[in-house]
């Protein structure tokens, strides 16, 4: 069945939310994030040992502020968008790979580790519930289903660092 013009518009708007999210999350751009989530949006990280909290609580906490993971990068792909209730709500499943890291010897939230960065990658799926508001689509519930974590990896500085770690010598 072909999509209506309104369904196409909603799907493009929802896809745009995920592109804006990954860039804003990595830049800690809360002005943009405030237009993706509602203050009462619930984040549920219980699948990985975390808790549940509102967006307001999450953005003031150590993860969003970069104190727990000072190195963070978000990669989202393959959004599966199901529009519900005549196009007023949607459920989206999106695959996520989040390379991140913390200082070796750090105690987490204080960010006081003095060692080299220890890098990891989390792999999983976000299941998000969205609602269409007068201001556009907003995520109102976010559930993280962690599949696995890989690591630890060593953080290297650029391609020369990567080549050096691999024992490759560049002429020149």
UniProtKB/TrEMBL annotation:
Gene3D superfamilies: 3.10.450.50. This is SnoaL-like domain-containing protein. InterPro entries: NTF2-like_dom_sf, SnoaL-like. It comes from the Eukaryota. Residues 6-142 form the SnoaL-like domain. Signal peptide: none annotated.
């Amino acid at each position: 069945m072909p999509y209506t013009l309104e369904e196409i518009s909603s799907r493009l708007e929802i896809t745009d939310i995920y592109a804006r999210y990954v860039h804003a999350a990595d830049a800690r751009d809360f002005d943009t994030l405030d237009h993706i989530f509602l203050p009462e949006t619930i984040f549920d990280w219980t699948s990985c040992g975390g808790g549940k909290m509102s967006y307001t609580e999450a953005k003031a906490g150590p993860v969003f502020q970069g104190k727990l993971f000072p190195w963070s990068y978000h990669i989202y792909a393959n959004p599966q968008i199901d529009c519900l209730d005549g196009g007023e709500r949607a459920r989206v499943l999106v695959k996520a790979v989040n390379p991140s890291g913390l200082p070796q010897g750090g105690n987490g939230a204080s960010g006081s580790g003095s060692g080299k960065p220890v890098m990891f990658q989390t792999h999983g799926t976000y299941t998000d519930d969205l609602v269409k508001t007068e201001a556009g689509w907003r995520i109102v519930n976010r559930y993280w289903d962690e599949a696995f974590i890989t690591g630890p990896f060593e953080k290297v500085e650029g391609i020369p660092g990567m080549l050096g770690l691999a024992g490759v010598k560049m002429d020149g």
